[in-house]
Design a protein that fits this description.
8 helices; alpha/beta; 11 strands; 20% strand
Length: 280
């Protein structure tokens, strides 16, 4: 036995020769009728930076590229995915399991707002119940022939994030951040969580990078010079996209027409996902 062994097997790796305790496996299997290829989690170290926006736009982008896409809305207490897609109908279940709701272009979506009586009803639940609900979205929903599933994660690194990364076989993470100076802390938290869960990071997306005037098209950096590149480089990450503050994006989300919004700033990130799918 190593002289540094503290007899706590939960803190050592699988290859430890001194292991005496069986490591607990929290992995949950998707529904038997589900067929999911790649799972991409969209995360951030704090709230309000645009995870739901990036999730929605990436799902719509990959759908336009010809892939079957889906969104698992893991932000139980702050779900906004149905609103962005203009979904009013409720999800339902049959004798086999729950069925996701399809968007206008055929993106499969499951969110707590698709199960609540009223979309404005608050979800006043404790952590374990919220985590259990997210897990059920993975195990009880029939996700049929999905090429890319995007998980809209809740803010921070709490119970739900831990449940997702321990239960679901996530293939890669996209980190969303904003240009402000505190971005370094946001990125570091998300990177550290990914490292602890041993999940690769696809890249960083900076939201609210600049304001684009709807009249003249002039770009103005409302938050000053960006610190995202510097923060990303500290962790050997690449900034894959910069999303502007654009009134057209806001209008598309508010009207439930995010699928109609098209822009080229997500092309590089989409290319990395396509490469990931082709290399499997």
């Amino acid at each position: 036995m190593s002289e540094n062994c503290n007899n706590d097997c939960s803190s050592c790796g699988e290859n430890c020769t001194d292991r005496t305790q069986q490591q607990t496996d929290f992995t949950a299997h998707p529904h038997v009728q589900s067929n999911i290829n790649k799972v991409i989690a969209v995360v951030s170290g704090k709230g309000g930076v645009g995870k739901s926006l990036v999730t929605s736009m990436m799902a719509a982008k990959m759908k336009r590229e010809g892939y079957n896409t889906a969104i698992l809305d893991a932000d139980i207490t702050g779900p906004s995915i149905p609103k962005a897609f203009g979904i009013k109908e409720k999800a339902f279940a049959n004798e086999l399991g729950m069925l996701p709701v399809k968007s206008k272009t055929g993106i499969d979506i499951m969110s707590i707002n698709l199960l609540l009586k009223e979309e404005t009803d608050p979800v006043v639940w404790r952590g374990p119940l919220i985590g259990g609900t997210v897990k059920q979205f993975w195990t009880d929903v029939i996700w049929d022939d999905v090429d890319f599933m995007f998980i809209d994660m809740p803010p921070g690194t709490g119970d739900v994030s831990l449940t997702v990364f321990q239960s679901i076989a996530v293939d890669a993470i996209i980190i969303v951040t904003s240009p402000q100076e505190l971005v370094s802390m946001i990125v570091s938290k998300a990177v550290r969580m990914a490292e602890l869960m041993n999940i690769p990071i696809l890249g960083v997306v900076e939201n609210m990078s600049y304001f684009k005037c709807p009249d003249c098209g002039k770009e103005t950096k409302l938050f000053g010079e960006s610190h995202t590149e510097e923060a990303a480089s500290k962790h050997s990450l690449k900034v894959m996209a910069r999303i502007p503050i654009d009134t057209e994006i806001a209008q598309a989300c508010d009207s439930g027409n995010i699928e109609k919004y098209e822009a080229d700033f997500l092309n590089e990130l989409a290319g990395e996902l396509i490469k990931m799918e082709e290399e499997q």
